[in-house]
Amino acid sequence: MTLLFNVVENVVSGGKASFICADKTDCRIYLINQLSTAQSVRKYTSAIKMKKIEIWDLKVGMYIRELDRPWLETPFLLQGLWINSPGDLEEVKRYCKYVYIDPDKGRDVDDSDLALDGSDTYVTQTGGQKPIKVEKPPAYKVHVRFEKEIDVAKNIHKQAAHVVRNMYDDVRMGKSINTEGAKATVSSIVDSIIRNPDAQVWLTQLKDKDEYTAIHSLNVCILSLAFGRHLGFSREMLNELGLGALLHDLGKIRVPGQVLNKPGKLTDDEFKLMKLHPVYGKQILSITNGLSPNIIDIAYSHHERMNGTGYPHGLNSDQISLYGRMVAIVDIYDAITSQRVYHHGVHSMDAMKQLYELRRTDLDNKMVEQFIQCLGIYPVGSVVELACGAIGIVISINRERRLKPKILLVMNEKKEFITPTRIIDLAKFDSSKFGTQFDVKNVVQASVYRINILDYITPRSAIDQSVA
Questions:
Q1: 97: Cβ–Cβ under 8 A, 6 or more apart, which residues?
Q2: Which of 256, 292, 384, 399 has the fewest CB neighbours in a 10 Å radius?
Q3: pLDDT value of position 29
Q4: Half-sphere exposure for 327 (CA within 13 Å, toward CB)
Q5: Mean pLDDT lowest for which of 109-118, 174-183, 229-238?
Q6: Buried-exposed string 443-465: b where 16+ CB fall within 10 A, e elsewhere
Q7: Are 163 and 112 in contact (CB under 8 A)?
Q8: pLDDT-derived band of residue 435, with 50, 70 and 90 as boundaries?
Q9: Phi, psi of 311 (to 5 degrees)
Q10: Is the CA virtual torsion 117, 240, 295, 61 positive or negative?
């Protein structure tokens, strides 16, 4: 530890101000209204112990007590600064070679980036406030059954899709973004996710390759919120994360359509154009009222990678915010499970395997593991074959008995379609009563059995056919 402040033994008349030096080059007046003697000033300042660190050791979550130069020579308005985002890091690096941090108030040099194994996790926050610490385990419980929430969720989803389409159209025509409408939409999704996340996650199966960007944005919003709920984020954080996720791809509006929708591999020049969409997104959002820096950062950093191979700036792990790491994972997951003009979507199990393979290179290791835990062994929307030979679609996961999801039975043991379909909660199903073994055998491709999940998105006909 390096003791930062040295009090100059010279108290201005009345004790209302004292000369305080950080080092030999920085001596200026601090107004200390409550301190009236040199002894009191010494007691106040010596109680604060700082740590001097080189600028490359500075990380998100740290609190800077002093700079290597006078604050007046920098654009920072306040003496004392929270590092809340990669943007804050870059700004400080422009002016300083070293800084003094307060490890008792913020993150220390030796603190791990993320610690979701039961300890606290630093999370970025806006407005110069202290980064919030998220504690495990999550505080949320499922309060509403899937069968009850699904109709509410469907109405919210329908309205949200309309808002997203209008938002993209407005930006395309040069109009401003309706931020209040977007915030209200995200707030409604947050309410639904808190009650029961599976209903909204189920609706992310509504993928449309001809309207990919808008629907993908909504899906990333929903999945990010489910992820944040799993991590125990507060409602305030969920709203911020959700809005950033909803707006994360808005910059694609400025990418030429022939590049964005090309049905084949992009050329090097075309890929350079594609890689500009985070920059465009930041430009659009930076001139939009009512958006926090954390929201803008999501649009700017969701293609950055932990090993520095991402774009647009090749940031390394210490420079990528928690929200950016989360949305990067969700963005990949939804993209590779979606049907595109140039890509056949994979099922959720294959997608999770791909994420797992990227966890030590491109993606945050602990965050990938947490996302997989969030989705469950059999994610919502998975098509599964049961031990008896029947085929079902997972509509809700059991967070305590992960091998026993709730499924929508769509085919019988002979692989014949069932009308009407039935909902079966495997955690409550008594096989001895029905003489049928309904444990999950394996995950299968929907196309193998000509199953179109869109036909079952709202299983209203099955609600009254539930089997316990």
A1: 54, 55, 68
A2: 256
A3: 32
A4: 34
A5: 109-118
A6: bbebeeeebebeebbebeebbee
A7: no
A8: low
A9: -140, 160
A10: negative
CATH of span 146-375: 1.10.3210.10
- Return the number of other C-beta atoms located less than 10 Å from residue 135's C-beta: 13
Q: Give residues with Cβ within 8 angstroms of 456, minimum separation 6.
A: 393, 408, 410, 421
194: closest CA among 240, 233, 229?
229
Q: In whole angstroms, what is the distance from residue 453 CA to residue 168 CA?
A: 27
**Residue labelled with tokens 């309410």:** 191
Are the CB atoms for 423 and 363 separated by under 8 Å? Answer: no
Do residues 398 and 427 touch, judged by C-beta distance below 8 A? yes
Ordered DSSP codes for 72-83:
GGSS--SSSEE-
Sequential DSSP letters for 275-298: TTHHHHHHHHHHTSTT--HHHHHH
Q: Are 124 and 117 in contact (CB under 8 A)?
A: no
The SS3 call for residue 122 is strand
The residue count of the chain comes to 468
CA 392/CA 439 separation, integer angstroms:
11
Question: Would you state the structure tokens that stand for residue 436, as one six-digit string?
Answer: 């049928």
Q: Are 344 and 353 in contact (CB under 8 A)?
A: no
Burial class (CB in 10 A: 0-12, 13-18, 19+), 94: exposed
Amino acid at 423: I
Read off φ and ψ for residue 386, nearest 5 degrees.
Answer: -90, 165
Domain borders along the chain are 2-112, 146-375, 383-463
Taking residues 340-369, report their average pLDDT: 87
Burial 272-288 (b: 16+ CB within 10 A, else e): ebbebbbbbbbbbbeeb
- Encoded amino acid at 45, one letter: T
Rounded distance, CA 327 to CA 313, Å? 17
Output the average pLDDT for the chain. 80
The widest CA-to-CA distance across the chain, in whole angstroms, is: 95
In this structure, the strands spanning 132-134 and 121-123 are: antiparallel
CA distance 464 to 467: 9
**Residue 253 pLDDT:** 94
